[in-house]
Amino acid sequence: MVVADDTGAETQVNGASHSIQITAVDTAALSELIASAQSQHDAAVEGTGAGQYPVGSKAALQGAIDSAKAVLANPDATQADVTQAVNNLTAALQAFTSSVVSVDTTALRTLIVSAQSQHDAAVEGSAVGQYHPGSKALLQTAIDSANAVLANAAVTQAEADQAVTALTEALRVFTASVVQRTSGDVNEDNNVSVGDLALVAVAYGKASTDADWDQYKAADVNGDGVVDILDLAAVAKTILEK
Ligand SMILES: [Ca+2]
Ligand SMILES: [Ca+2]
Q1: Res 9: pLDDT
Q2: Given CB 3.0 to 4.6 Å as the disulfide criterion, which of 39, 110, 172, 184 pairs with 192?
Q3: CA 234 / ligand 2 centre spacing (Å)
Q4: Ligand 1 center to residue 212 CA distance, Å?
Q5: In whole angstroms, what is the distance from residue 166 CA to residue 147 CA?
Q6: Ligand 2 centroid, distance to 231 Cα (angstroms)
Q7: 179 alpha carbon to ligand 2 midpoint, in Å?
Q8: Distance separating alpha carbons of residues 232 and 148, to the nearest angstrom
């Protein structure tokens, strides 16, 4: 029976029978997947930094989400349509997830550790093997800059590579600032004098094959592995030229 509004007549529909076969379409999985994909999409940032996604990838994922939402909203969608929608969106989500930008900072980390260790072990001063005053602070500044790059969660590969280059250069300058032995200054008093000549004389005849070479090798002024007349002559020449 159909009851009309007060502008028309009521109509008796005889024998009308409508049988509706309702097959429940399970959309729970699709619904959950859409929510998950949307939240991953919304949290994602496009860019070239670590953990970011290539430009255009969010729009591609959103397109897949929208298609899935259309299926979810369609009352005529069959279970097969829903399953297909789940499969499509799963594939789109996997493609999106695997496109995340990864930046390799291994080289930078290794270099920072090495630089810091060289910095910490270095002593500033004027003696042989020490570093020029101020050189440690310079190196530390370079290390700090490198650490700042590393601390940036969205660092790009180019930034990481540039930091490696900069710290490598700082380390080269630092290493070059180590105080070298003045040729002929056997006793390391920053002066070439008869005292050095005497030490060469004492070590005269010693060679790198000797067990106690370490004790005398400073007297090997020309570095040829033996203390001989050439070393004496080199020290003498330096003294005479002063
Ligand atoms: Ca000396
Ligand atoms: Ca020599």
Answers
A1: 53
A2: 184
A3: 9
A4: 21
A5: 12
A6: 5
A7: 21
A8: 52
CA of 110 to the centre of ligand 2 (A): 39
- The CATH class of 106-176 is mainly alpha
Q: Tell me which CATH homologous superfamily contains domain 28-98.
A: AF1782-like (1.20.1270.90)
Q: Where are the domains of the chain?
A: 28-98, 106-176, 194-241
Name the DSSP class of 131. Answer: B
For ligand 2, the distance from its centroid to the CA atom of residue 221, given in whole angstroms, is: 5
Q: Please tell me if the domain spanning 28-98 has the same topology as the one spanning 106-176.
A: yes
pLDDT of residue 96: 98
**Over 80: is that where the pLDDT of 80 sits?**
yes
Of 156, 190, 204, whose CA–CA distance to 47 is shortest? Answer: 156
β-pair partners for 124:
131
pLDDT digits (tens, 9 = 90+) for 119-151: 999 999 987 789 999 999 999 999 999 999 999
Residue range 155-214, pLDDT digits in tens: 999 999 999 999 999 999 999 998 877 788 999 888 899 999 999 999 999 999 999 999
Give the Å distance between the CA of 230 and the centre of ligand 2: 6
Full-model pTM: 0.63
pLDDT, position 1: 42
Dist CA 182 CA 63 (whole Å)? 72
> How many angstroms separate the alpha carbon of residue 220 from the centre of ligand 2?
4
**Tally of helices (H runs) and strands (E runs) in the chain:** 9, 0
